[in-house]
Amino acid sequence: RRFGTKCTACQQGIPPTQVVRRAQDFVYHLHCFACIICSRQLATGDEFYLMEDGRLVCKEDYETAKQNDDSEAGAKRPRTTITAKQLETLKNAYKNSPKPARHVREQLSSETGLDMRVVQV
Question: pLDDT tens across 60-71, in order?
């Protein structure tokens, strides 16, 4: 009992007479062999992804999660458009001091209405 085979999902012991499912070196109870996202029990022939820690994800949920990750990774911040007046203010400030101190950059940010990061760059 202490040293016998344990289910990867629930960590409970598996008696030698019980039917199990295997995925690589991992062993599961029949009812534990299920997708962690949708809880659908996986059957023989179902395509699934095996995570490093032994968790199972059905193909549909894995592809949905992957598409969501790809769409979030591609989202970029819109470009900042600087008006002529803002540009003139920034040029004058940087002409006087090529590396302005933080308080000067904060003042420029409030004067121009631009983000601190934009003023710094």
Answer: 888 888 877 766
Q: Within 10 A of 7 (CB to CB), how many other CB atoms are there?
A: 21
Best CA proximity match to 26, nearest among 37, 14, 38, 17:
14
Q: Which domain holds residue 98?
A: 78-120
- Helical spans, DSSP H, in the chain: 59-74, 84-96, 102-112, 116-120
The amino acid occupying position 115 is: D
Average pLDDT over residues 8-12: 86
Distance, CA of 38 to CA of 30 (rounded, Å)? 16
Query: Do residues 88 and 116 share a domain?
Result: yes
**Is 0.70 topped by the overall pTM?**
no
